Amino acid sequence: MSIGDDSSAPRCAWATLLTSEHLLPGLMVFAHSLLVQHASAHPLVIMATAKLSPRARSILSSMLPSGRLIIRDIDPIYPTSIATGLAYTRFNEVWTKLRAFSLTEFSRVALVDSDMLVRHNMDDLFSDPFVFGTEGEWIGASWACTCNPNRIATYPEEWIPANCGFTPQCLPEAASSSTIVQPDESTPRPARLINSGLVLLTPSQATMDEMVEAINTDPRIPEYRFPDQDFLADFFSPQPSNPRQRNIRYLPYKYNALKKLRIVHPNIWDDEVATNVHYILDKPWTLGRPGGRVNTEGKDPDAVVHGWWWSAFDDVQKARVDGAKGCIKVAEEDWKDCVEKYMTLD
């Protein structure tokens, strides 16, 4: 062992699911911001199903220096019951994200969505004493915003500001893991729901097997609107009958800064504090640049946050073209066919 090495240190990783080429624009920016710009010390694992094309796999395998990005083939998860309550039909695919619990070659994993932009290094998450240093089995995640500001008809009726976990929070407490107020059993269920864009977890094949069994047998499964995150909120809720003492540690919004929070919850939002922005709902790369021909600022209430993504995209593109050391490398033909093809560039 060389000087400075610590063989007892936990092996950590970020993990995200990728099933289609059309997700590559988001992944390129996320990977660059996480691994290059803000220099995470831990690799990004791409959980890939058979749906991911060979070309996309080839791009991923060579885009970053060896060991920084790892492709893991996984089997999809589909419940045996028929979903009747999904908020979006595409959510049939999100159960497969839970395969992150099978990444047992790592001792600590952060499950992340690829429609994110890292604005500050967040490796400190892997040292969270509540998630990784407390008796029992824990996950860490931030709240789902249940305000439903867009009045989406398929969202639950009880999703209103009064039932949102973010509503009673305020700065500076809301931005710190040590001061953020945790919900308890008296908290209404909507205010205990999580957003699964970022979930800290300890991989365990036993837990994975229990999850699959529950997904195929729990009568609540067909009614979940947001499958994986509704399931996790229930599976890890403390219950007297649960001998494994499963729990959720609610994290500050800044690690999963849902873009709508900037408008809906100014009580907790600070542009400089937002560490990892999550581009839920409309994606900036499909809307086009704020102020552009397709996406004028007056029509885009999220123009400022979307502008951050486009600025990061320009940084990725410039570094790629210039051949900057350590940056993402993608051949021009692949970039046009598999990245720009799925973007609105006007």
UniProtKB/TrEMBL annotation:
InterPro entries: GNT1/Glycosyltrans_8, Nucleotide-diphossugar_trans. It comes from the Eukaryota. Coiled coil: none annotated. PANTHER family: GLYCOGENIN SUBFAMILY MEMBER. This is Galactinol synthase.
